Amino acid sequence: MVLSTLRGVLARRPLLKSVVTVTSLITAADISCQLIENKGETFNWIRLRNMMSIGVCYYGPFYYYYYGMLDRKLPGKNPRTIALKLLIDQVVVTIPSLAIFYVFISAIEGKNIEETKTELRSKFLPTYATACCFWPGIQALNFALVPPQYRVLMVSTSTFVWLTFLSYVKNRPKLPYLFVKINELTGVQTTEVEG
User: Fold this and answer.
1) What is the per-residue pLDDT across 108-151, written as a single tens digit (0 to 9) for each?
2) How would residue 184 be classed by pLDDT, with cut points 50, 70 and 90?
3) Cα 14 to the chain's mean position, in Å?
4) What is the pTM of this model?
5) CB neighbours (10 Å) of residue 182?
6) Cα-Cα-Cα-Cα dihedral sign, residues 105, 111, 112, 115
7) Residue 142 to residues 59, 111, 147: CA-CA distances in angstroms?
8) Within 13 Å of residue 189, how many CA atoms lie on the same side as its CB?
9) Which of 115, 122, 135 shows the shortest CA–CA distance to 175?
């Protein structure tokens, strides 16, 4: 009865459905990440709260409005439209979304501006490079094959994998080796290396 009532409410309120879907997946992603990292020995509830907060405050509402607008402005599934959507997604949307992710979580964690800038300098570009490898294929399938009403669900499912990765990177005191190499190639000074 409770489940059917919840389904009815979410069916009538697509924005709420988007927020609940994305936040649930972010929650599951961070729980998975923490269980893998800590082998089930410890759990950081504050970190989980922070990840859930960005789902509620940013990703859930943003995905809902973004995909609705994108489909209205660029209808169709021809290769040119899909390529334009991919370009918008990787450049216009992903760059600010990653910056928002790092700044939002840093603000909740109580980091000052200098700490936030340092983290952005060391983690942003490698995270964006990883996003450029991860998202284009998924989004090409999403824009070409998935009906508009299921796009948030498709992205949210892929986001589970992506946010598990982001949770890992965001909460590491030292950078993964790949990030250090990307920073070296781009001239960003890195002092933190994960062994």
Assistant:
1) 999 999 999 998 988 898 889 889 989 998 888 888 888 877 87
2) confident
3) 20
4) 0.78
5) 19
6) negative
7) 17, 36, 8
8) 1
9) 122
The more confident residue out of 105 and 184 is 105
Locate 87 and state its tokens: 């370009």
Q: Is residue 10 classed exposed, middle or buried when 0-12, 13-18 and 19+ CB atoms within 10 A define those classes?
A: middle
Looking at this protein, which amino acid is placed at residue 169? V
153/38 Cα distance (integer angstroms): 29
The token pair at 122 is 């060391």
Structure tokens at 128: 């964006």
Share of the chain above pLDDT 90, in %: 31
| Contact predicate 51/112, CB 8 Å | no
Q: Is the dihedral of CA 95, 96, 102, 105 positive or negative?
A: negative
At CA 18, angle to CA 58 and CA 12, rounded to 5? 135
For position 190, what pLDDT does the model report?
A: 60
Q: How far apart are CA 150 and CA 110, in angstroms?
A: 36
Rounded to whole angstroms, the Cα distance separating 175 from 112 reads: 20
